[in-house]
Specification:
ten-stranded mixed sheet; four-stranded parallel sheet; binds threonylcarbamoyladenylate; binds magnesium ion
């Protein structure tokens, strides 16, 4: 259902809310990516999310609420850190992990004693939450382990026939999933980097800890501190490599082997177009994707670019290495996971 992203039509929101009330699944835009929503207080509805996505049931879901006051029914503790962060970053792309109350079904938490909560900023998500009157559990609206959707078409490509409805509010602005911060520990732990950076969080609550980005230590077995931290995740169909050497030499050799190559580059158009003209202008097997040299803009474009390359049946995606600075942390994290070998 097409919906206005800034002033969502109440009658369309009402239809979506009705589906959720009946136990159905509705995909909807947030300021990060599209979510796949169900009534968070009904274990059976939530179970359908796992079925539709093919998601392992021990991977907990984020619960979305329309305003901070509503989390009190869901969490048994609301520490000072939580209050400060909520005040500063909600509504917005920050998920806080806190001890749950008995109102939160096991289906949401994967059986664990904590729950991730956030207040999304997107007007459609907000209107839907206001209208249903209950919290909405929503993971990204993609098949498990695949790329998150930033457009309704991406949701359709993965979940057609598996869900009741999609609210199509056009492309999402943020482009990467929310930052996930565990507040149940003495020192808060960054479980998933996202659009809110560690520096922004530390400016409010002081030092936090980070899981090492390349956390291959988190295996497919055993308890999952943050299953989104599984090494391979957020992956396109093509093999993705972050290539530190001379990309042009690499591209020539891949093309010679018959690969269809996509290249994500922050180089200037002059730099790569000279190459493309000389070697590959006539080569339909090379797609060059110019990327912004700004972390927020890069994040906003990344998944849509990878979805497009997948759509062109590219077999290999080369990515220029990214700056090591903190503002690029979330983008580096997703690309590292997208490039990790299959488990
Ligand atoms: O931006 C987002 O966060 C989007 C939109 C729809 O809100 N949602 C999203 O959900 O990305 P999902 O399920 O794809 O990723 C949620 C991440 C997973 O890595 C999950 O393991 C972690 O949050 N998570 C959720 N609840 C948790 C909990 N109680 N403890 C630890 N990690 C949790
Ligand atoms: Mg996801």
């Amino acid at each position: 259902m097409k919906i206005d992203a800034t002033l969502p039509e109440p009658e369309i929101i009402a239809r979506a809310a009705e589906i959720l009330h009946g136990g159905g699944l509705v995909a909807f835009p947030t300021e990060t990516v599209y979510g796949l929503g169900a009534n968070a207080l009904e274990g059976e509805s939530v179970a359908r999310i796992y079925e539709a996505k093919g998601r392992p049931s021990r991977n907990p879901l984020i619960v979305h609420v329309s305003e901070a006051a509503e989390v009190h029914a869901l969490v048994s503790e609301w520490p000072e850190h939580a209050a400060l962060l909520a005040q500063k970053f909600w509504p917005g792309p920050l998920t806080l992990v806190l001890p749950r109350t008995a109102r939160v079904p096991d289906a949401v938490t994967g059986g664990g004693e904590t729950v991730g909560v956030r207040v999304p900023a997107h007007p459609v998500a907000h209107a839907l939450l206001k209208t249903t009157g209950f919290p909405i559990a929503a993971p990204s609206a993609n098949l498990s382990l695949q790329l998150s959707p930033t457009r309704a078409e991406h949701v359709l490509a993965g979940l057609t026939g598996r869900i009741e409805a999609i609210l199509d509010g056009g492309p999402t602005s943020g482009g990467l999933e929310s930052t996930v911060l565990d507040l149940t520990r003495p020192v808060p732990l960054l479980l998933r980097p996202g659009l809110i950076t560690p520096a922004q969080i530390e400016a409010v609550i002081g030092p936090i800890e980070r899981l090492s980005t390349n956390s291959h230590a988190v295996s497919a077995q055993g308890p999952l501190p943050a299953p989104g931290m599984l090494s391979r995740h957020y992956a396109p169909h093509a093999t993705l490599e972050i290539y530190p050497g001379d990309p042009l030499a690499r591209i020539v050799s891949l093309l010679a082997k018959g690969e269809r190559v996509g290249w994500l580059t922050r180089r200037s158009r002059e730099e790569w177009s000279a190459f493309a003209d000389a070697n590959a202008e006539a080569d339909p097997h090379l797609s060059i994707a110019p990327m912004p040299d700004d972390p927020a803009l890069y994040a906003s474009d990344l998944y849509a670019t990878l979805h497009t390359l997948d759509g062109q049946s590219v077999t290999r995606i080369l990515v220029d290495p990214l700056p090591e600075s903190d503002d690029w942390l979330a983008v580096r994290d997703r690309l590292q996971r997208a490039s990790a070998p299959d488990l």
